[in-house]
Amino acid sequence: MNAPKKSKATAADQEAKDRLVVSQAGDGSAWDPAIRVKRSKRAALSLPGELAARAAFLARLHRDAGIDHWVERVVRERVEIEEFAFKETKKKLAS
Q1: Cα–Cα distance between 72 and 36 in angstroms, integer?
Q2: For residue 78, what pLDDT is reported?
Q3: Where do the structural domains in the chain lie, given as residue ranges?
Q4: Alpha carbon 13 to its chain's center
Q5: Chain mean position to CA 26
Q6: The whole model's pTM is what?
Q7: Rounded Cα distance, 19 and 17, in Å
Q8: Residue 18: predicted pLDDT
Q9: What gap in Å lies between CA 89 and CA 94, rounded to an integer?
Q10: What pLDDT was estimated at residue 9?
Q11: Which pLDDT tens digit goes with each residue over 38-82?
Q12: What does the chain look like in DSSP terms, one character per residue?
C-alpha cells in the first residue's frame, strides 16, 4: 500500500497565506463580489397510513429525531445506492 503523498505547502507557506488574507480582510476591493445561494424548497410526500406507521416505528427503533429525518436518511441512502449501481452498469456497458 502506498503512503499518502505529502503536500508541498509548508507551514511557512500557510502562514504567509494567512497573513495576506488577514491584511486584505478590511479591503473590499480585494474580494470577489458576494454571491447569493438559494435554499432548495422542501417537497411534500404522502405515504399510505400503514406504511407511515411502520416507518414511525422504525424511526423510534433507530432513535431518530423524527419520522421525517428517518425517511429522509433512508431515501438519501437508497438514492445513493441506485446512483452508484446506475453508474457501474453504465461503465460496464461502455466497456
Answers
A1: 26
A2: 97
A3: 47-95
A4: 30
A5: 31
A6: 0.52
A7: 5
A8: 87
A9: 9
A10: 64
A11: 888 888 888 999 999 999 999 999 998 888 899 999 999 999 999
A12: -PPPPPPS--HHHHHHHHHHHHHHTT-GGGSPPP---PPPPP------HHHHHHHHHHHHHTT-S-HHHHHHHHHHHHHHHHHHHHHHHHHHHH-
Q: Which pLDDT score, from 0 to 100, does residue 83 have?
A: 96
Quick one: pLDDT at residue 54? 94
So what's the pLDDT on residue 40?
83
Q: Cell numbers at residue 56, please?
A: 414511525
Q: Is the dihedral of CA 55, 58, 60, 63 positive or negative?
A: negative
- The b/e string for 45-75 (b: 16+ C-beta within 10 A; e otherwise) is eeeeeeeeeebbeebeeeebeebeebbeeee
Cell digits of residue 46: 404522502
Tally the residues of the chain.
Answer: 95
